[in-house]
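cron nightly-structures :: item 1 of 1
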Amino acid sequence: MEGQQPPPSSGEEPPYRLRVLSEPRGFLRIIEFFLAIFMFATTAGFSDSMKYSVQCSIDPPINEEVPYSYPFKLYTYKYPSSYCTSGLTTPPRLNAATAEPEGSARFFVCIGVLAMLYCAVVLVWYVFLEVKFLHLEIVPLVDTMVTAVFSLLFFIASCAWAAGVGDIKWWTTFSNVRDRFYKETCMSDGVACVGNNGGYAGLNVSLIFGFLNCGVWAANVWFTLKETGWFRARMEAKQGQQQQETSEKPTIETPPANQV
């Protein structure tokens, strides 16, 4: 009948390609997507505190709690200038941490968020758009370059964040704070200084995800490079050269056996 569209042929390809997700570059993109989420989530969602108390002779103990969470502005918390000072019930808060891990924490989280967004965009391209724009050979090349840049950024961010985590651990360990600000006071007779440090498991896990992202993205550079026109042209030229050398190679004929 007129006006009816002919049914699609059985050999016609669908407007999407899910099989690319089973290929190394697609499968690694899925892994990278979740690794990036775990990386910035364990950092941005971290929160803990250090608690300590100072007992001055017969006076009631003075309890302090030092919270620390993302973006880890340790310098904003002011410690009392002294304890157990006669005639001074509320000593001024003048002491503060000198480390500033805020920058490395924000950079680490930023790289994770950008990587997650890039993976989401690239997966949409792989599945729904790449089949329609196979003639755009610049896209695989850009994908390879961005993947290489991200692997380098992950390494830089992870190294910087490792130094930042070291600063956080130092300034949230009571023994270090005590020796830095209150060593003479806590060593005096009749004074007791005790404290509990916070936990650092979440920070250690974030570092693991950071360096793991670096390794996975670096490995994916090879698989994205194989999709570029430059790589395919080079491999085709190499195969053609090998076939030509094989065809030009002289064949050695074996002489017939001597007849008796």
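cron nightly-structures :: done
The beta strands are 47-56, 62-69, 78-80, 93-96, 191-196.
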